[in-house]
């Protein structure tokens, strides 16, 4: 048990996740920096397209996220075979969904960009980027399912090492394909798209090998056809509210990008650059939130309810300290950092004007992430779903449109509504966690099971004496 405890400790889980996220951040920053050498229009297209891809990932993240929580819970309750079956189903189903999305994005990039009101002069670049990167959506789905399954067994280092290799290859290929280095043609934005797909393909291959050996019994290719209706029902029970929750976030973000597209290319580019800087702010906090979700799910499955309750607050306070310091660093050096990406003074001015608001945004986001993930870990996913549905659509979307577009407050108004949304959801999650609804229910269930077991032992002992 001591080994298991050490493997599922907050720090052991969190630091590889942080390294992985940090490398993903570097990957995104390198992408943005290299694409900015093409044009600010290309940056706007990449930012816009990535929001579209994130929105579509909700169609398979439902399965991956629900499976991840159940894998940790099953391992905590020593049901390793059920955890293995759940992981196999998550990979198979996610791959099927991802393949369908790949077909749609590869064949209809122009129509999709047009539906989302992308400015006409950006359409040629968007068609190229969406068709290539979107055509590889099946790779994104498999990466999500594989890395989630591996991570929730307590092995957070595996995905981290994969991210390191992926980043190195991606930066080298970006340089080669964008600028025509090493004898390659100068492909520009098309080169970025091709580089992205190649790196994801390599990552899937590495993660699949790790996945095969992630459980006590090795997973074979023929096992991918394995399916349990009962266990898949459990995955969907936890996963579908997570999927709705995630879809609320990404679709509201996509709509916000659509609002920004209405404001102009500069606003769209400024938000893309600032999004890159913001990723650095909450990255370590998010890694802590992901780690505590795995840890709480494992403790909850093992019946260690009081430990599960307290660890959420510890993670929240650690995360708040970290993101506040990071946000302050971005505030102090933001202008210089934005200057690395663009020389457009209007875009830099727009970005700098939001850095002060970012100091308010990040603490609210951290509370929301830590306690929202804690609720998800114990299966209280419907509450986070409903709070997201109400707050995101009314505040982050409807109010943002009214304030930013109708009242003419622009980017600042939209950003203020994003802050309000994070604090409302964070406060609701805090109140729900303090109520301990699912934790108290689990404690009562454990007490009933313990009493039943004592009763069986008592009756067995009495029967033996009678004989």
TrEMBL record:
Keywords assigned: Cell membrane, Membrane, Transmembrane, Transmembrane helix, Transport
Cellular compartment(s): Cell membrane
Protein name in the entry: Putative efflux protein, MATE family
Stored NCBIfam families: matE
Source organism per UniProt: Paenibacillus algorifonticola
Superkingdom, natural source: Bacteria
GO molecular function, one term: antiporter activity
Key word Lipid metabolism present: no
């Amino acid at each position: 048990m001591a080994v298991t405890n050490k493997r599922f400790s907050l720090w052991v889980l969190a630091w590889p996740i942080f390294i992985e996220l940090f490398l993903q951040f570097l990957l995104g920053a390198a992408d943005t920096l290299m694409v900015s050498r093409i044009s600010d229009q290309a940056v706007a297209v990449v930012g816009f397209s990535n929001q579209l891809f994130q929105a579509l990932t909700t169609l398979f993240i439902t399965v991956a996220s629900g499976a991840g929580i159940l894998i940790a819970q099953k391992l905590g309750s020593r049901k390793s075979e059920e955890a293995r079956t759940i992981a196999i189903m998550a990979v198979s189903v996610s791959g099927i969904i991802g393949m369908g999305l790949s077909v749609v994005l590869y064949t209809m990039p122009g129509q999709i960009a047009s539906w989302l009101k992308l400015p006409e002069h950006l359409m040629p670049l968007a068609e190229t980027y969406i068709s290539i990167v979107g055509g590889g959506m099946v790779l994104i789905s498999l990466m999500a399912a594989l890395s989630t399954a591996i991570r929730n067994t307590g092995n957070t280092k595996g995905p981290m090492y994969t991210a390191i290799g992926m980043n190195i290859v991606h930066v080298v290929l970006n340089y080669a394909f964008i600028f025509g280095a090493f004898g390659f043609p100068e492909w520009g934005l098309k080169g970025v798209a091709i580089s992205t797909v190649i790196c994801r393909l390599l990552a899937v291959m590495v993660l699949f090998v790790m996945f095969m050996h992630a459980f006590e019994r090795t997973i074979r290719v023929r096992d991918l056809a394995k399916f349990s209706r009962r266990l898949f029902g459990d995955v969907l029970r936890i996963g579908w509210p997570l999927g709705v929750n995630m879809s609320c976030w990404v679709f509201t973000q996509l709509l916000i990008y659509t609002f920004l597209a209405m404001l102009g290319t500069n606003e769209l580019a400024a938000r893309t650059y600032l999004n890159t800087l913001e990723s650095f702010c909450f990255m370590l906090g998010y890694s802590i939130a992901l780690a505590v979700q795995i840890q709480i799910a494992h403790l909850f499955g093992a019946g260690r309810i009081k430990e599960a309750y307290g660890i959420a607050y510890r993670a929240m306070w650690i995360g708040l300290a970290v993101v506040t310091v990071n946000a302050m660093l971005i505030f102090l050096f933001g202008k210089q950092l934005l200057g690395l990406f663009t020389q457009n003074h209007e875009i830099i001015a727009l970005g700098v004007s939001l850095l002060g608001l970012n100091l308010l945004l990040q603490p609210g986001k951290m509370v929301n992430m830590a306690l929202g993930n804690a609720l998800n870990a114990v299966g209280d996913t419907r509450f986070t779903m409903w709070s997201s549905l109400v707050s995101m659509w009314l505040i982050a979307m409807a109010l943002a449109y009214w304030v930013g577009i109708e009242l003419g407050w622009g980017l600042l108004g939209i950003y203020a509504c994003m802050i309000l949304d994070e604090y409302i959801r964070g406060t609701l999650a805090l109140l729900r966690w303090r109520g301990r609804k699912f934790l108290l229910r689990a404690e009562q269930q454990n007490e009933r099971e313990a009493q039943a077991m004592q009763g069986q032992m008592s009756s067995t002992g009495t029967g033996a004496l009678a004989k």
